[in-house]
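Workshop exercise sheet. Pairs work together: one partner reads the sequence aloud, the other fills in the structure field after running the prediction. Swap roles for the next sheet.
Pair: D.N. / O.F.
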Amino acid sequence: MAKKKTNAPRFVMIYHDMLWDPDFIKLSNSAKVVYFYMREKFNYKTLNEVSLTYTEMKDVVSTRTMYRALEELQKIGFIVKIKKGGLSYGTYRNVAKYKFNGKFKEYYYRGFKV
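Structure field:
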């Protein structure tokens, strides 16, 4: 049987427990927005590895705000940087890679814990 295609819009799943978590409440609004965009880019095939570039976010937050938001998310422990990004080795561009961390790192996709 073929998969049914749905016209439902994409969404980001955030747990109720997370919304009322004291650490999440302490986050700035910018950090929350960046976190939601990172969750939107989540792909279960990449083993919880997410990249979010400044260019992708230029219409949402400024470069400086995004930098501060990422630092704040790392400091509180919601994400961990696993690969440094930027220009290196001449003209090659590397994208920073992040991994979700902490008590809300698990993400359930079609019944599977990722």
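Discussion prompt: Helices lie at 16-19, 22-26, 29-40, 63-76. What would you look at next?
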